[in-house]
Fold each of these.
Amino acid sequence: MSCTIEKALADAKALVERLRDHDDAAESLIEQTTALSKRVEAMKQYQEEIQELNEVARHRPRSTLVMGIQQENRQIRELQQENKELRTSLEEHQSALELIMSKYREQMFRLLMASKRDDPGIIMKLKEQHSKIEMVHRNSCEGFFLDASRHILEAPQHGLERRHLEANQNELQAHVDQITEMAAVMRKAIEIDEQQGCKEQERIFQLEYVQVHWQRDRTEECIISGCKLDCKI
């Protein structure tokens, strides 16, 4: 009797597990059916939209289509020309930056040589030249950035060509940001060098001041010593 009850319980447990498996399979089938229904509905909607577009294109005159294509091609050529001009401007800007850096190195060498010769006039002149170079670089960098922004904002949308040109614009913008960052680093270096030059010049003036006072004190001591010797004689 006990074996029969245990067997019945085992069979009931197996049936429950099988029912759970069937429920899981049914839920999976329902989810797949729902996904397929949505996909079929989307395909039907896509097909209807394609048919509507074909109907519109069929009723439009061929001359209108040709004119639209020509206009888009002209706008794409204009975008390509603007992109080319931006690349040219970027190359010119990089060349100008290289020239500024070479001038900066040359001026810093002259500044160091002048500080060794203790010539404050040359130092002030070099500082003025550094300020002019920095202002020219800032103006050219801001002008190029505004020009690139204007071209990016005015460019119309043209599918893949538009995305390709936008990618090029983003690349150019990244180069502009790098150049701007380099300019900031250069300005910081100029400030540090100027501060160092001022400290060195101040140190030189202090040493000269101490030297002058020491010489004056020595001269006074010599004069006083000479007077004492004359009195003794």
Amino acid sequence: MSDHALVRMTLPGIARSVSLARRWVADALTAAGHRDADDARLVTSELVGNALLHTGSGRPGGLVRVNVFEIGDALARIEVIDEGAPTVPKPREPGDGECRGRGLWLVQQTSVRWGNRLIPLQRHLVWAEVSTLEVGGTSEILGAGEALWQE
């Protein structure tokens, strides 16, 4: 099974870029014939939002890159490349009263697998693979996505 690039975008490190990325990812998947882009939208929002909040991408003049690949006809991989941070992205389960901190936990819950790695210039590439099959009936989380770390 080979990957096929659907879209590559570089966006300014501003809040509006989250919704732009989310829309472009969904539009690219829909145009390629994928039937369900909901998980891809959520993952894109969380990963781009995290890049803007926690890395150099959110500073004035910062940039964030988003790549979308289809893997066969039922899977998509979303990659977000930030401008670096002193910490490694990792999920945590927030307490009941916390309003923030659920981003990577949501990515973990909605993806088939996900991970991150350092790339040149101390940047992070965080990725997630999500199903794009339309599923009917009730939904149930059967297991969290597998997390991978590469250096």
